[in-house]
């Protein structure tokens, strides 16, 4: 590393840093500042201190959104991880063991390929797809069948207490395959001898799963939980496209990203929208710190 | 690489029991063969059901794309009476799906190229050169992973507006690249660190400059890592929805596919052109199936690369 190291280093770093600071760091820094103003885009912003934050506390839509993040934060990881773990276990160690090597069930490869596919599609496209699936009349995939059998159609997206769960179902539909592949990679690195030894001691599939697979997969599970938690704090594309009038009916599915977008680009309340953005940032950060803390435990060496 | 020879069975490696009263000995006394069969049987049913849940909505969309509106309403579960290719023509030209598709290709190919070029340059320097401020720059990039994009949305809109790049390709391309840098730098820096330094040293002795060394020696060596991140970025940027929604809102001729299809779905109700919408969805989904079928292994590796690290 001799001749002209510094010109080279600076030359290589200049463009990436310039781009990154202009479009990422600078806006992030400004967001905190704008959140302390009553800026509406036309006149110069006026400093209002913590007024926007005080108003947030009385904003019903904001609390509804926070509440929905709470539901998403519990339901999305729990349901997705449970289903994905079950399938990953079946696909990797569910079959019979031959010659000491544990095998997945028949067709494991096919299932893995099919399950993963929704991950490749854009969430906005999936949202349009499920708008069709959930349609409330004969033209919907689900209600078309129900009405053929003379049943009442289910108003998936219109009923306030059903709408959020209909959206969570779509998120799970998309995510499961990704985590099946992720957990499969983790399970593949667990040595077969451990299963063999456990089986010699008379362990069943269920015991194997809870006593061997699960503890040895802990690190991967932690990653999955953080990923799904971050996804639960976004959910903009799915809510914006799939739900009735962007977060409806009557705010029953709204999320913070939706409220930020609406306040900023529909009502031009830039200061207020930025305060929501800051709130979202601290919620995300708290979640990540809590998860890493709560799930911290000795990882099992093997 | 053979675990059988390197690792003796070590029951000590098993996690400690957690006080479950039934213990592993209880159910273990059952007839193992029937247990295996029952488990595998139930498992097969569950797997098959999930495969159906994944495949049916997509297949149903493809079929509906060939129907007309009355068929969509009267017989959603039957095959189309005839193959109405004109639905696709209508979606492609009248509903502008062709335009949106082309826009997505233009934006994503440019932004991914830019992301990979700038990301690998920064990652390489940060991973393999010692200089004052190295760590600070590295953490500046990586800290971007912790921030939600929505925090920046309002100021970002005005930054792009003040640069005169609102409703332009270059605006979205630069923003996509900028927001892809944290992960790209994080991943590639780790990757460049694993490459052996002997080749680089040999190159230096032969009088190879830093820049040539990077493009002609290190880049080819880092190919597997570069491919993984490139796939990750292509799929992520192709799926972008909120950024183009904010940055391209007034330029309908530059809209990307996600934005366009979402807009068509809003209008389909007013114009009652449901078959056109299904055709548009098919046009958006089918290429992804083909690409996925060909590059299935690389795509799975690329998308999970961030988590496995």
Walkthrough of the structure:
The complex is a heterodimer of chains A (302) and B (309). Chain A has 302 residues and is an all-alpha fold. Chain A has one domain (58-294): Orthogonal Bundle (MetI-like fold), CATH 1.10.3720. Chain A is built from 13 helices and 2 strands, in the order αααββαααααααααα. Chain A has helices at 5-34, 51-57, 60-93, 108-116, 123-133, 141-148, 160-188, 192-200, 205-216, 218-232, 236-242, 256-265, 270-294, and strands spanning 97-98, 101-102. Chain A has a two-stranded antiparallel sheet. The two termini of chain A are 40 Å apart. Chain B has 2 domains: 34-87, no CATH class; 95-272, MetI-like (MetI-like fold), CATH 1.10.3720.10. Chain B has 15 helices and no strands. Chain B is globular and about 75 Å long. The model of chain B is unreliable at 1-31 (pLDDT under 50). Chains A and B meet through helix 1, helix 3, helix 4, helix 5 and helix 6 of A and helix 2, helix 3, helix 4, helix 6 and helix 7 of B.
Topology of this structure?
The complex is a heterodimer of chains A (302) and B (309).
Chain A: H1 5-34, H2 51-57, H3 60-93, E1 97-98, E2 101-102, H4 108-116, H5 123-133, H6 141-148, H7 160-188, H8 192-200, H9 205-216, H10 218-232, H11 236-242, H12 256-265, H13 270-294
Antiparallel strand pairs in A: 1-2
Helix pairs in contact in A: 3-7, 3-10, 4-7, 5-11, 10-13, 12-13
Chain B: H1 3-6, H2 25-28, H3 32-64, H4 69-74, H5 86-94, H6 97-128, H7 134-143, H8 149-162, H9 169-194, H10 197-205, H11 210-221, H12 223-238, H13 242-247, H14 257-271, H15 274-308
Helix/sheet category of chain A: mainly alpha
What is the CATH homologous superfamily assignment of chain A? Answer: MetI-like
For the largest sheet of chain A, list the strands in their spatial order: 1-2
Poorly predicted runs of 5 or more residues of chain B? 1-31
Which percent range describes the beta-strand content of chain A?
Answer: under 5%
Low-confidence stretches of chain A: none
What is the fold named in CATH at topology level of the largest domain in chain B?
Answer: MetI-like fold
Shape of chain B: globular
User: Which structural class do the helices and strands of chain B define?
Assistant: mainly alpha
Helix content of chain A: 55-70%
């Amino acid at each position: 590393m001799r001749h002209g190291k510094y010109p080279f280093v600076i030359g290589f770093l200049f463009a990436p840093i310039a781009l990154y600071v202009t479009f990422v760091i600078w806006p992030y820094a400004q967001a905190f500042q704008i959140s302390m103003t009553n800026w509406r885009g036309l006149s110069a912003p006026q400093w209002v201190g913590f007024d926007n934050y005080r108003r947030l506390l009385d904003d019903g839509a904001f609390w509804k959104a926070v509440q929905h993040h709470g539901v998403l934060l519990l339901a999305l990881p729990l349901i997705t991880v449970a289903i994905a773990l079950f399938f990953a276990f079946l696909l990797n160690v569910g079959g019979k063991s031959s010659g000491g090597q544990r095998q997945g069930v028949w067709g494991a490869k096919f299932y893995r390929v099919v399950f993963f596919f929704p991950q490749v599609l854009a969430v906005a496209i999936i949202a349009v797809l499920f708008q069709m699936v959930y349609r409330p009349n004969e033209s919907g995939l689900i209600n078309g069948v129900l009405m053929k059998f003379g049943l009442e159609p289910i108003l998936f997206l219109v009923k306030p207490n059903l709408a959020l769960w209909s959206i969570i179902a779509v998120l799970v539909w998309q995510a499961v395959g990704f985590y099946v592949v992720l957990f499969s990679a983790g399970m593949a690195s667990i040595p077969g001898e451990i299963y063999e030894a456990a089986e010699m001691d008379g362990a069943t599939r269920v015991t194997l799963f809870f006593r061997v697979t699960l503890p040895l997969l802990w690190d991967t599970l932690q990653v999955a939980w953080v990923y799904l938690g971050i996804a639960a704090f976004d959910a903009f594309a799915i809510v914006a496209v799939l739900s009735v009038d962007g977060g409806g009916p009557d705010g029953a599915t709204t999320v913070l990203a939706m409220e930020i977008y609406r306040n900023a680009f529909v009502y031009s309340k830039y200061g207020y929208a930025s305060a929501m953005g800051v709130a979202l940032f601290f919620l995300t950060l708290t979640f990540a710190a809590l998860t890493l803390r709560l799930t911290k435990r000795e990882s099992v060496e093997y | 690489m053979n675990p059988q020879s390197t690792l003796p069975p070590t029951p000590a490696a098993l996690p400690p029991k957690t006080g479950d009263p039934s213990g592993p000995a209880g159910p273990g006394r059952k007839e193992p063969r029937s247990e295996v069969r029952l488990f595998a049987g139930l498992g097969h049913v569950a797997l098959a059901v999930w495969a159906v849940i994944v495949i049916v909505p997509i297949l149903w969309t493809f079929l509906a794309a060939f129907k007309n509106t009355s068929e969509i309403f009267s017989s959603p579960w039957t095959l189309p009476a005839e193959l109405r290719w004109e639905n696709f023509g209508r979606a492609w030209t009248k509903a502008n799906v062709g335009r949106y598709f082309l826009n997505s290709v233009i934006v994503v190919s440019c932004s991914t190229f830019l992301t990979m070029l700038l990301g690998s340059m920064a990652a390489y320097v940060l991973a393999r050169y010692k200089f004052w401020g190295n760590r600070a720059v590295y953490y500046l990039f990586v800290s971007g992973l912790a921030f939600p994009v929505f925090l920046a949305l309002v100021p970002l809109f005005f930054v792009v507006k003040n640069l005169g790049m609102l409703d332009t390709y270059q605006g979205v391309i630069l923003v996509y690249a900028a927001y892809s840098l944290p992960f790209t730098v994080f991943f590639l820096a780790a990757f460049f660190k694993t490459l052996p330094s002997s080749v680089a040293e040999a190159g230096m002795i032969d009088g190879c400059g830093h820049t040539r060394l990077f493009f002609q020696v290190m880049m080819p060596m880092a190919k597997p890592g570069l491919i993984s991140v490139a796939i990750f970025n292509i799929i992520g940027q192709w799926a972008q929805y909120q950024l183009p929604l904010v940055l391209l809102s007034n330029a309908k001729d530059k809209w990307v596919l996600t934005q366009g299809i979402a807009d068509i779905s809003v209008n389909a109700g007013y114009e009652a052109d449901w078959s056109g919408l299904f055709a548009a969805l098919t046009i958006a989904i089918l290429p992804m199936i083909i690409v996925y079928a060909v590059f299935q292994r690389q795509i799975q590796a690329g998308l999970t690369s961030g988590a496995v690290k």
